[in-house]
Design goal:
The protein is mainly β. It has two helices and nine strands. Strands 1, 2, 5, 6, 7, 8 and 9 form a seven-stranded antiparallel β-sheet that branches. Strands 3-4 form a two-stranded antiparallel sheet.
Amino acid sequence: MKTEQDYDPTRSHQETNTLYGNHYRFAIERLPDLTFFVQSVSTPPVSGGVAGQVNPFAVVNHPGERLTYGTFNVTYMVDASFKTYFSLYYWMKGYGFPHDFDEVKRFRAKQLSNDRVSPQAQPIDLEKTTAAITILTPDTASIVAEININDVFPTELTSLDFTSTDTDAPVLTTTATFSCSTFDVTLT
């Protein structure tokens, strides 16, 4: 795998093929069953800061010191057992709107029982996980790049639309919005 140190953006590359947006795999560590049902995922937007240097005639912009990573969306089908939806709802309810302190303790105890979580994890760390978007080459399972997203937690779960007027049985889908702190890209 190529790291940032191996990549030289000033060198011309001879690649003329384009990448297809439907050759990917999305996985979120805390919700492994969600992977199969994902219909679409977006990468978090990245914004660079701008520092303005004032002079008597104009403000001269320079690159800022920090990047800001936005939220990203995952649209997925709801499974027949309702677990893909419930898992995200339970996660959000565990950190966002419990009815009492015992509910918070049960949520955190459940997260600590997960073998992927460090026993020394701080309470705030129990509410976050990692996610990965693996970009694949068309017609093969070869990996082009991996985008590893850090400190992921859900911030919004869209509504579910039930309707009895459709003649075909529509597949129920919803979208979850996630926050993150950073992401890293690894080329292969």
